[in-house]
């Protein structure tokens, strides 16, 4: 049985008249088991769909690598898991089960695995790219297995979503949100980070870049393995805040930055639930900010209850407090965790804004934003971001954040910086 | 809370100024009377601010002192059921905070209410700035008395002495029980003409204040016995083993038919607030300010002096005597009898102002004494709650 714990990091002391309470809540899950229960054989409570781009641009090495990767992924899917393979171009096609099959998804077993690999080997590239149709079909297929509590998809593309209007994709993303989780992967340098991030963010997954086609297989294998290791199919983060207060934001800050604020659904007037998807044995950190009416010095008040709930059952709870004090040595102290993740969240946004400005030809803004990014990456000890940034800018002074844009940069380096921008490092232990 | 003054001169070596506002503190005061900042030395184990848990480098507050949280129902021995939130009336969750407004649940000793009869009630509250409630209250209004009868006792623990919260509660209950014995249904019932009864109640009040004083002495001895081991440890660690004995003030009002008698030691007060608009303070503070006023110093000047709140009489092992001063009145009409600690009257000292305040809250509460007491306590907290607050009220209807 999965065991959840929640731990709070904050400075609970507020100066006279202060109203804003910030806290980092670290939620850890242990003993999650594997998807569908103990052992390797699943009991039909999980479902997995592999979506592979089969547009004309995939012709050649990309297509061959993608087919190989899909076959490897099929090997990783545990017996007893509902599964399907979708091929996507300007339309979506069910590759397996075969289009003429009477069932939309089948349960994995050795025979199905061999037949699925045969179907994958027959995939042929051709046509355009309309990703909304792929998601729409996946949603229809998942809908046929309501008994599966945990639904996960992997989406691979190499190109821009060029065969349809942006609004079409947005509409379908909105429609399928909450139905299944989806990790999105782009291969090569002709796909658009923002498009895939939109999908993975809404569908509680990750986005990443695969620079070389031969790396697709390893990535797919690890994605399926990770999905299969999530023994807790769905959990909500719940935030209670007192009467008369305002939740300023709820943000996942580790392992990646995801703003959850707008995903709130009401449990009761004082409590909101924020979906967090499936959990394996892992730890995630959340930054919660609440504005409460100021109270007289000496008063104490609970500013938030932050809980993890499986369905209606609360399995972990943490208390965020506010204590007003006139002792400056207490109130001016900044929680290192809050400071660290505030910096990391800003790092993610300045990288994205800086790259967007650079793409738009606004070099002045790009220089300032990426300079600030270099400074924040150094301050928060995010070495991965530092090394990625150094491929895009010449650093003059890391501490002050003064940089020059490099003249000739590889598109892949920019995309790698962009996709990795939301990955955070944890607080360094003092 | 109130400081006691051992003599009227201030030794230079004993002068302590508040680290927060610079106010000169009375000798051995634990909190600044001006801003409520703790004046406790670090060796006391009490942090310089309230709370202090959960922050590295700040020593945690002392563990809850033995016996500090008293069961409020010693007769039944039952632990009272979880009460609704004192701030908003919401349900208090298992984590100890209100489910509606997030206010921490009050300890029984930090906030309690009594209403022995529909016309008699009181509220005793920790306030905002102090970590402990050293005020205490004990009320009685037996229904079988045959005539109107009530006892209201308020004691305010002296903040320079630790464990005054235990002493003040013991004192207030001892006094209440003695006075109940002089009531119409008691075995030493005070009877006779008004003059005879005033004399009888004066004796009764002195007996009750002596019993209260004795209760403080006994509490002090018990505390001292429990702390011998702790003090040896403190002494070995180089700490200060000298502890002040607990002490407290005393203010009592007895309603006996048409008669109201007040008794006091220290600066907790008894007010009679008649509906006619006549308002008077029946008690006379045993305080430095009052002595200066009596000597001709203007009231505002005397009350705003740094040592204004130093009391000249108190209950406790080091008290010169434990005999209450008394005053009596025969109210002509209906009105409110109020017994309160300085946590309330500090914000509203003059009798006429107190009349306005009580009349306003009584009007908003349909004349219910419990709701009115609660409103008075809430109001004092809203003014800053720099001290513990106790307000006990009896509603006197016109007789016959």
UniProtKB/TrEMBL annotation, chain A:
PROSITE patterns: VWFA. InterPro entries: VWA_3_C, VWF_A, vWFA_dom_sf. Pfam families: VWA_3, VWA_3_C. Residues 47-227 form the VWFA domain. SMART domains: VWA. It comes from the Bacteria. SUPFAM superfamilies: vWA-like. This is VWA domain-containing protein.
TrEMBL record, chain B:
SMART domains: PP2Cc. SUPFAM superfamilies: PP2C-like. Residues 125-396 form the PPM-type phosphatase domain. InterPro entries: DZR, PPM-type-like_dom_sf, PPM-type_phosphatase-like_dom. Pfam families: DZR, PP2C_2. CDD domains: PP2Cc. It comes from the Bacteria. This is Protein phosphatase 2C domain-containing protein. It comes from Antribacter soli.
């Amino acid at each position: 049985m999965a065991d959840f714990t929640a731990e709070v990091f904050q400075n609970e002391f507020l100066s006279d008249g202060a109203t804003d309470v910030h806290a980092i809540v670290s939620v850890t899950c242990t003993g999650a088991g594997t998807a569908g229960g103990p052992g390797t054989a699943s009991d039909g409570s999980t479902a997995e769909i592999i979506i592979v781009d089969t547009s004309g641009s995939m012709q050649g090495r990309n297509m061959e690598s993608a087919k190989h990767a899909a076959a490897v992924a099929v090997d990783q899917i545990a017996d007893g898991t509902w599964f399907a393979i979708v091929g996507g171009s300007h339309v979506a096609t069910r590759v397996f089960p075969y289009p003429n099959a009477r069932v939309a998804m089948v349960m994995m077993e050795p025979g199905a695995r061999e037949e699925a690999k045969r179907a994958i080997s027959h995939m042929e590239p051709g046509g355009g790219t309309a990703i909304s149709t792929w998601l729409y079909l996946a949603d229809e297929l998942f809908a046929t297995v309501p008994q599966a509590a945990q639904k996960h998809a992997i989406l691979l593309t190499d190109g821009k979503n060029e065969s349809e209007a942006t609004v079409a994709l947005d509409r379908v993303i909105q429609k399928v949100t909450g139905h299944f989780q989806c990790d999105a992967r782009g291969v090569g340098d002709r796909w658009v980070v923002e498009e895939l991030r939109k999908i993975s963010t809404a569908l509680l997954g990750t986005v990443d870049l695969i620079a070389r086609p031969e790396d697709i297989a390893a990535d797919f294998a690890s994605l399926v393995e990770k999905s299969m290791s999530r023994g807790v199919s769905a959990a909500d983060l719940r935030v209670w805040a007192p009467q008369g207060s305002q939740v300023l934001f709820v943000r996942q800050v580790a392992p990646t930055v995801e703003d959850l604020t707008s995903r709130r659904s009401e449990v009761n007037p004082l409590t909101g639930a924020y979906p967090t998807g499936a959990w394996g044995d892992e730890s995630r950190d959340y930054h919660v900010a609440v504005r409460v009416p100021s109270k007289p010095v000496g008063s104490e008040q609970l500013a938030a209850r932050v809980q993890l709930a499986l369905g209606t059952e609360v399995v972990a709870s943490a208390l965020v407090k506010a204590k007003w004090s006139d002792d400056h040595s207490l109130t001016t102290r900044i929680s290192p965790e809050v400071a660290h993740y505030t910096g990391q969240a800003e790092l993610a946004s300045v990288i994205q804004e800086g790259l967007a400005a650079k793409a738009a030809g606004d070099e002045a803004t790009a220089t300032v934003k990426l300079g600030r990014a270099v400074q924040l990456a150094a301050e928060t000890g995010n070495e991965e971001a530092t090394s990625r940034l150094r491929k895009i800018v010449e650093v003059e002074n890391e501490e002050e954040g003064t940089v020059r844009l490099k003249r000739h940069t590889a598109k892949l380096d920019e995309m790698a910086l962009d996709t990795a921008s939301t990955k955070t490092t944890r607080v360094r232990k003092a | 809370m109130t400081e006691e003054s051992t003599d009227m001169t201030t030794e230079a070596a004993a002068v302590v100024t508040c680290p927060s506002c610079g106010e000169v503190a009375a000798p051995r005061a634990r909190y600044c009377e001006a801003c409520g900042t703790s004046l406790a030395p670090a060796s006391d184990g009490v942090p310089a601010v309230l709370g202090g848990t959960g922050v590295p480098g700040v020593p945690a507050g002392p563990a809850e002192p033995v016996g500090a949280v008293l069961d409020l129902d010693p007769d039944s021995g039952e632990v009272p059921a979880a009460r609704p939130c004192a701030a908003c009336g919401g349900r208090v969750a298992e984590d100890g905070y209100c489910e509606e407004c997030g206010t921490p649940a009050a300890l029984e000793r930090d906030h309690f209410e009594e209403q022995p009869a529909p016309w008699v009630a009181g509220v005793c509250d920790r306030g905002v700035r102090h970590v402990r409630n050293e005020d205490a209250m004990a009320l009685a209004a037996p229904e079988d008395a045959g005539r109107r009868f009530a006892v209201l006792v308020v004691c305010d623990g002296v903040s320079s002495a630790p464990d005054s919260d235990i002493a003040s509660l013991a004192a207030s209950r001892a006094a209440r029980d003695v006075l109940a014995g002089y009531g119409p249904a008691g075995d030493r019932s005070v009877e006779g003409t008004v003059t005879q009864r005033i004399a009888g109640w004066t004796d009764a009040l002195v007996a009750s204040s002596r019993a209260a004083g004795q209760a403080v002495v006994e509490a002090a001895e018990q505390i001292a016995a429990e702390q011998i081991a702790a003090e040896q440890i403190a002494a070995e660690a180089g700490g200060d083993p000298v502890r002040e004995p607990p002490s407290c003030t005393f203010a009592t009002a007895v309603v006996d038919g048409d008669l109201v008698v007040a008794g006091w030691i220290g600066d907790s007060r008894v007010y009679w607030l008649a509906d006619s608009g006549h308002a008077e303070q029946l008690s006379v503070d045993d305080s430095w300010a009052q002595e200066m006023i009596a000597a001709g110093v203007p009231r505002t000047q005397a009350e705003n002096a740094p040592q204004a709140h130093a009391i000249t009489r108190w209950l406790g092992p080091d008290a010169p005597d434990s005999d209450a001063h008394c005053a009596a009145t025969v109210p002509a009409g209906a009105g409110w009898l109020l017994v309160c600690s300085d946590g309330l009257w500090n914000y509203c000292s003059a009798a006429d102002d107190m009349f306005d305040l009580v009349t306003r809250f009584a009007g908003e509460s349909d004349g219910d004494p419990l709701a009115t007491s609660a409103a008075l306590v809430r109001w004092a907290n809203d003014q800053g709650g720099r001290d513990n607050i106790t307000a006990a009220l009896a509603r006197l209807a016109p007789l016959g």
